[in-house]
Amino acid sequence: VQLQACGGGLVQAGESLKLSCVASRSIFSINYIGWYRQAPGKQREFVARVHSGGSAYVVDSVKGRFTISRDGVKNTVYLQMNGLNPDDTGVYYCNALTGTSDSWGQGTLVTVSS
Q: If pLDDT is split at 50, 70 and 90, which confidence band does 35 have?
């Protein structure tokens, strides 16, 4: 699976961004599509994911601010990020898990200024 992530940028604290991850095949054929992030000097961490059946999960640290959704027609998974703060700064990666592959997009940079 090839993934193309976009939507990052420079915003001020409190503002919002919406990331997009476009998959090269039907997202309904992918077990999980999710978002990870890597802050400067830190390890990559899981943020959110959506199952092919539609169930979604968001980690507690961003719950209430981040929402993951999808558009099956566009083969796209979104990460809506509201109330951003400087701790959300990092490179955000899209990930796709199937029965036989674990694929990563190129990452999109999110920078939140205080």
A: very high
